[in-house]
């Protein structure tokens, strides 16, 4: 997917519509020709994924997505496959109406959908109900059809986008098709890579319909898919002082594990020195389990000051708590003006006491923490993750990592990258603590906050995928430490 830069560039629905209009108005390619190209690409995709299919059923809506569907059915019929169409209505217009006429003039079988009707027998279903323009829940009849398709057990090819999924946000406001394969056209739509999209799109392919390079000129992408990156080799005369000093602050009563994971991740990702400021009761456990961490018991801000003076980057929040001890250390860390990564209770404290960062900073909220930082609900954040991440970055003057399926990395200047790696096994305690240490280590080694967040999120997610080769269920944060080291050095991990 990353070989063609246009397949790494993510666009909004409005931008894709503009590209479509440009192809018609400036390149002289008719809308019906684009529809034929889309149908040809979709039928080829279907044959590639299900070569033994002998009959298909195509579900068509009244818009251009439905027009694609009628033409796909025609191609299947011409190829000797059995093909039937189930349509929501006969209200197709424009190019979609022309495609419907072509199908019917060719003797195609068409059924009108009624909620008490049975679905046709087929080896593959083709979803051409709704295109990228849908930004609301499907209406009742369409919702019932979508639920029936999902419950059928028959594999689905989604044409352009699974019906019901918002192509801008990755949110499903109502029923949505679950497709094992989705073929999208012209450009990659940003909402198909985050939020609920992963449970709907399956294997996602992009086909640019043979359109020339000139089409994309002057159309900057809204976001970009994250690349696999790592730091270059160290100078042969490097010493630990060249590689930065991370100070990890946290580990209140009962949470020594959180700050240990953070500190150990920083070590594994190349920080030259890692100190830990924590509760005194944690020192024995930390020193015995990971002696490379320079752990110090601190009772308050005064004992933290000398450690701050030696540090180049701070990692604040894992196991910090929101009590008097954690708040005092948090406030002292922010007042130091040091570059930092803020997570967990560091973010919860920030939601209580607003602060705009002048020094380089990375905030790594999950949706619940993002909701508190924006004084919104979790549902509102997830309904438009792109808007939430960008607003957080601008409000706090920091690079923001909005974690979750399809993590987003947002820069205050509006740039945004989307991470497509990672897996459900990473939904377990300690993963965020690990990510905090990874990003802090990269900043300590000279990366900007933006680059550290991008590289760190990518390596963390890819390490999770390596660790999940033994199964997703039961995956622990510490399972990522070995692959993190390998990936950070540009090596494959067995």
UniProtKB/TrEMBL annotation:
Question: Which terms in the Gene Ontology molecular function aspect does this entry carry?
Answer: ADP-dependent NAD(P)H-hydrate dehydratase activity; ATP binding; metal ion binding; NAD(P)HX epimerase activity
Where does the record place the YjeF N-terminal domain? 16-217
Quote the catalytic activity from the record: (6R)-NADHX = (6S)-NADHX; (6S)-NADHX + ADP = AMP + phosphate + NADH + H(+); (6R)-NADPHX = (6S)-NADPHX; (6S)-NADPHX + ADP = AMP + phosphate + NADPH + H(+)
Task: Tell me the cofactor note.
Answer: Binds 1 potassium ion per subunit.
Q: State which Enzyme Commission number(s) the record gives.
A: 4.2.1.136, 5.1.99.6
Keyword annotations for this protein? ATP-binding, Isomerase, Lyase, Metal-binding, Multifunctional enzyme, NAD, NADP, Nucleotide-binding, Potassium
Domain YjeF C-terminal residues, every copy: 223-491
Q: CDD domains from the xrefs? A: YXKO-related (cd01171)
Binding residue positions for (6S)-NADPHX: 64-68, 131-137, 160, 258, 319, 366, 433
Tell whether Lyase is among the UniProt keywords: yes
Record: residues binding K(+): 65, 127, 163
Q: Please list the residues that bind AMP.
A: 403-407, 432
Q: Does the keyword NADP apply?
A: yes
Q: Which domain of life is it from?
A: Bacteria
Q: Which Pfam families match?
A: Carb_kinase, YjeF_N
Needed cofactors, names only, are: Mg(2+); K(+)
Q: What does this protein do?
A: Bifunctional enzyme that catalyzes the epimerization of the S- and R-forms of NAD(P)HX and the dehydration of the S-form of NAD(P)HX at the expense of ADP, which is converted to AMP. This allows the repair of both epimers of NAD(P)HX, a damaged form of NAD(P)H that is a result of enzymatic or heat-dependent hydration. Catalyzes the epimerization of the S- and R-forms of NAD(P)HX, a damaged form of NAD(P)H that is a result of enzymatic or heat-dependent hydration. This is a prerequisite for the S-specific NAD(P)H-hydrate dehydratase to allow the repair of both epimers of NAD(P)HX.
Q: How does it assemble?
A: Homotetramer.
**Protein family membership:** In the C-terminal section; belongs to the NnrD/CARKD family.
* PANTHER family membership: ATP-DEPENDENT (S)-NAD(P)H-HYDRATE DEHYDRATASE (PTHR12592:SF0), ATP-DEPENDENT (S)-NAD(P)H-HYDRATE DEHYDRATASE FAMILY MEMBER (PTHR12592)
Q: What is this protein called?
A: Bifunctional NAD(P)H-hydrate repair enzyme
- Tell me which species this is from: Dyella choica
User: Lineage in the entry?
Assistant: Bacteria, Pseudomonadati, Pseudomonadota, Gammaproteobacteria, Lysobacterales
């Amino acid at each position: 997917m990353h070989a063609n830069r246009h397949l790494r560039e993510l666009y909004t629905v409005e931008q894709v519509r503009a590209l479509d209009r440009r192809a018609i108005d400036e390149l002289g390619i008719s809308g019906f020709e684009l529809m034929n190209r889309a149908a040809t690409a979709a039928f080829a995709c279907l044959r590639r994924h299900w070569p033994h299919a002998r009959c298909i059923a195509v579900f068509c809506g009244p818009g251009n997505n439905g027009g694609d569907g009628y033409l796909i059915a025609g191609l299947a019929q011409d190829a000797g496959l059995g093909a039937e169409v189930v349509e929501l209505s006969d209200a197709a217009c424009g190019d979609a109406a022309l495609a419907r006429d072509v199908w019917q003039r060719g003797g195609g079988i068409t059924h009108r959908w009624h909620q008490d009707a049975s679905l046709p027998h087929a080896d593959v279903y083709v979803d051409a109900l709704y295109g990228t323009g849908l930004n609301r829940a499907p209406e009742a009849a369409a919702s019932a059809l979508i639920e029936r398709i999902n419950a059928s057990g028959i594999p689905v090819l989604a044409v352009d986008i699974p019906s019901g999924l918002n192509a801008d946000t990755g949110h499903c406001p109502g029923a949505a098709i679950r497709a094992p394969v989705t073929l999208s056209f012209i450009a990659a739509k940003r909402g198909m890579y985050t939020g609920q999209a992963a449970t709907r799109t399956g294997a996602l392919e992009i086909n640019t319909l043979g359109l020339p390079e000139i089409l994309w000129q002057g159309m900057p992408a809204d976001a970009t898919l994250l690349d696999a990156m790592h730091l270059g080799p160290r100078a042969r005369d490097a010493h630990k002082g060249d590689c930065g000093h991370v100070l990890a602050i946290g580990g209140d009563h009962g949470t020594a594990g959180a700050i240990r994971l953070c500190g150990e991740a920083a070590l594994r990702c190349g920080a030259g020195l890692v100190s830990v400021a924590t509760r005194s009761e944690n020192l024995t456990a930390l020193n015995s389990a990971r002696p490379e961490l320079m752990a110090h018991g601190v009772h308050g801000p005064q004992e933290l000051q000398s450690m701050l003076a030696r540090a180049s980057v701070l990692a604040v929040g894992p196991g910090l708590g929101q009590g008097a001890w954690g708040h005092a250390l948090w406030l002292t860390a922010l007042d130091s003006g040091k570059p930092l990564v803020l997570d967990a209770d560091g973010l919860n404290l920030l939601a209580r006491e607003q602060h705009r960062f002048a020094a380089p900073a990375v905030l790594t909220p999950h949706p619940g923490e993002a909701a508190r930082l924006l004084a919104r609900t979790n549902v509102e954040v997830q309904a438009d993750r792109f808007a939430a991440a960008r607003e957080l970055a601008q409000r706090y003057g920091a690079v923001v990592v909005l974690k979750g399926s399809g993590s987003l990395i947002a820069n205050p200047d509006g740039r945004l990258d989307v991470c497509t790696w990672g897996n459900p096994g990473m939904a377990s305690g300690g993963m965020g603590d690990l990510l905090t240490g990874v990003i802090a280590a990269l900043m300590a080694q000279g990366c900007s906050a933006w680059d550290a967040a991008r590289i760190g999120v990518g390596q963390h997610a890819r390490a999770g995928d390596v660790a999940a080769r033994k199964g997703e269920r039961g995956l622990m944060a510490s399972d990522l430490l070995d692959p993190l080291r390998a990936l950070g050095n540009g090596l494959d991990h067995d």
